[in-house]
Please model this.
Amino acid sequence: MFHFRSSKLFIVVLVVLVLATSAYAFAATNTVPASRAGEGSGAISGYTVSNIVYTFDATNPSNLTDVDFDLDAAAATVRVSLTAAGTLQSCSNTSGTSWTCALTGVTVTSASSLRVVASQ
Model:
């Protein structure tokens, strides 16, 4: 009788081990690609604006129609304003580091400063 009980216990343990092993074998796995994370810092420097040329409206020279200029390095986005509280207006790259900006509603008398906002 002692032998019969120990063989029953052996069979129960064996069944539990088989079930545990099969559950582990069928468990889903995840594949996670390599990734990076980090922190760093770098200097932020401004651009040097040169060769500024203002264009007057041919029919009303009191109005400015555009401003052209060069930057000392490449930029992806450039905007300008010629008044202190003026809306920044978009510019387009004409070649390399040369930019032209169409102006809307800017008169010679309202133009008080050239504000250039540029980013890489």
User: Anything to note?
Assistant: The helical segments are 2-25. The beta strands are 49-56, 63-71, 77-81, 89-95, 98-107, 115-119.
